[in-house]
Write a structure and sequence with these properties.
Blueprint: H1 7-24, E1 31-33, E2 39-45, H2 51-65, E3 71-76, H3 78-84, E4 100-105, E5 109-112, E6 127-135, E7 143-151
Length: about 150
């Protein structure tokens, strides 16, 4: 059973997550709400983005979208999956006796996912980072960096 996400937004989320890892060295988002009009992703981080970082994030995401990358799912055994993705963040109820569904965005991103996606990044349209905000954590712990975005 797959989540009922907007395929364009969901695929853009994959690209944005990989770009955040590469650009800022953080983990993929820990929470997201993906809607056809506007979406958001939350990241554990220690500060807000600078304007330059926000612009660079938008530029890099659009660069990957513009590559017209194929988007496809594959099922792999767990031993293979553990060499490709971080399985530690998967829900505890996932059946390890069954192959794991991975979604690939060309040569740019791979992650475990049950959602719906476009077949090619050219179907996403332009990515726009609408806003970003930061909420500090308590007692010096990492806070939450929230990114809001649109596509189309």
């Amino acid at each position: 059973m797959s989540k009922c996400y907007d395929p364009q937004m969901h695929t853009a989320e994959h690209i944005m997550n990989r770009t955040m890892v590469l650009l800022l060295g953080c983990d993929r988002s820990f929470s997201s709400h993906l809607n056809a009009g506007k979406s958001k992703c939350d990241y554990h981080f220690h500060r807000d983005l600078t304007d330059a970082e926000a612009g660079e994030l938008e530029r890099r995401v659009n660069g990957q979208i513009g590559r017209s990358l194929p988007v496809y799912a594959e099922y792999v055994d767990w031993a293979t999956a553990e060499t490709l993705v971080d399985v530690a963040h998967l829900p505890s109820g996932v059946d390890r006796s069954q192959p794991l569904r991975l979604v690939r965005v060309g040569d740019y991103d791979v992650c475990a996912c049950i959602g719906e996606h476009v077949e090619n990044t050219a179907q996403i349209g332009a990515f726009r980072l609408v806003s970003h905000s930061f909420t500090p954590g308590e007692d010096g712990r990492q806070g939450v960096l929230r990114l809001r975005f649109k596509v189309g």
